[in-house]
Amino acid sequence: MSAERIADVRLERVAVEETFGLRQRVLRPSLTVGEVETPGDRNADTAHVIVRLLGGEVVGTGTVIRQESPWGEAGWRLRWMAVDVDHRRRGVGAHLLAALIEYAGARGGGILWCNARLLAVPFYERAGFVVRGQPWDDREAGSTVAMRREASHSTGQARIVAREQLGFRS
Ligand SMILES: CC(C)(COP(=O)(O)OP(=O)(O)OC[C@H]1O[C@@H](n2cnc3c(N)ncnc32)[C@H](O)[C@@H]1OP(=O)(O)O)[C@@H](O)C(=O)NCCC(=O)NCCS
């Protein structure tokens, strides 16, 4: 059974530094907070989004970077999706993903792709991603597989997102 859904969250587009804490804690506990910046993080059209509860606590983060897929398609790479362990299965990741898909779709669309941990595959499948190719063992992330979907249309789940609030209007 799913945990209680979070009805009211605030999605904010933020500077990359605001994502480092959750990135490190959820995805790279063996690194320091200063080591979780990656290429493309500071590109002008990269979007970093956080999910904030009404009380102020930041419980989720994700990033999209304009980057061709490994198969040569123009589009966007989804990276660093992380939801605090105490707030999983409450819809936080789905809100986040919908906002990032909408952002990429509004900026030219194309293919949205990611290297997904095997444990996260059902989460991405739920949002319309499909596996491409065979899994491999990533040194840092463990068993991983590439996934993709079109970025050109919304999942319909981002309706709570005020684009002005996210700074998605150019
Ligand atoms: C993957 C992750 C971001 C999902 O975030 P989340 O907030 O828990 O996801 P949601 O609650 O929005 O889930 C949306 C849907 O995805 C699917 N889903 C999510 N987690 C799942 C899981 N562990 N097993 C099966 N399905 C899952 C379900 O269909 C879920 O809908 P439901 O709860 O109504 O059944 C989160 O589990 C996480 O941070 N994991 C650790 C880090 C990680 O692996 N990040 C991804 C790196 S590639």
From TrEMBL:
Coiled coil: none annotated. It holds the Pfam family Acetyltransf_1. Residues 7-152 form the N-acetyltransferase domain. Keywords: Transferase. SUPFAM superfamilies: Acyl-CoA N-acyltransferases (Nat). InterPro entries: Acyl_CoA_acyltransferase, GNAT_dom, NAT_camello-type. PROSITE patterns: GNAT. This is GNAT family N-acetyltransferase. It comes from Frankia umida.
